[in-house]
Amino acid sequence: MYLSRMRKYIVCPVILLCCCNIATAQPKTDALLKDILQSNTNPVLQQVLQHPETYRPQIIYTQINRDKNNKPGFTNYYYNVDSLLYFNPASTVKLPLALLSLEKLNEMHIPGVDKFTSMQFDSGYNTLKAEYRDSTAQTGAPSIAQFIRKAFLVSDNDAYNRMYEFVGQQTINRKLHEKGYTDARISRHFWRMNVDQNRHTNNIKFIRNDGSVIYTQPPAYNTDSFDFSHVNKIGIGYMNSNDSLINEPMDFTQHNNVSLHDYQQMLQSVMFPSSVPAKQRFNLTKADHAFLYQYLSQFPSETNYPKYDSATYYDSYVKFFFSDSEHTTMPAHVRVFNKLGWAYGFLTDISYVVDFEHNIEYMLTGTVYANSDGILNDDKYDFETVAHPFMYQVGQTIYQYELQRKRTYKPNLSAFKIQYEKRVPDNRVLIKNVDN
Known about the structure:
With 436 residues, the protein is an alpha+beta fold. It has eleven helices and 13 strands.
């Protein structure tokens, strides 16, 4: 549901929105973040901030201050943050799926099985789909490593589906809740499936280079129930699977759901594991962290496998806080370690930003809803005119504030300096069209 971005900063009309059983508690807003955002007079930014019921913005700005031993301390500042204010997480759920996939591999303890091991997915139950080859991979075969690359570099949807099947619906939700991410609910593939079909996963094989099987993971079925007592309905209408307009709000009650605060904590647990309680961390190796750091921040133009068309998937393509259009150039000294998503008019980004030239670092997590006609699932959203400009303005406002903010101790950011790939010219066809 991604639409090409254009430099049109047009404030959309008031969005028609219906929501049932939304939060009764007051959203959390801190004066500092409110003042920082209000200092930017950009009309799109101010329009969204002045109409929170319409655009549903939520922002978490995390200041990071190091002590004399370079140990980081974290302070969160919130704007309109409410764990019960629903936003569709879209592709941001690929972040916890990647972390849980790596964790599961580490806990399987099967010799010869790791994130680089080739995999095969059988067709399995009902509408589940087989997958034996991956033309984007150097080996030509699917693997967890390749799924993570594709999920992070351009937000590939098939990669999510395969990690969902590998971990399994039951394990996904049990693990997240055990870690304290109690607002999380990941209940569905990105294929069109009913509730029962989403509970099933495929038969999966891990194979050697000669095609022999190392390990077979049998099909699974989730017997756990979900709590759907909190109803979330949005809009005034939606297009159904037959492309017919239904004149009633779209029901997101059983859709994926993760709070903004949980996302911020998940990313912090990856970038700074020791800064969160032990139970919140994912069981990852040092090599896993290095792999995640690389592909959370590497550009498509730097990547050989997959070989993406850098005109379509430009460097700032999945860096919303630093991108106002396809022509935006990322600052050479800035890297953004992030995961984002867009769907149903919602646009979300979870990021850790590093500026190596000015020695600054911070986290920024935000979401916004932009759908002026109130119709869901019609692929007609205000991404170019409202959502992208808003996120860019938020990102640049915080970045400029951080450039001026005084620190007692200058951070040593060498842990995040990565040797990125360099694209090697060859005759392979560039990938120009990804389902994301």
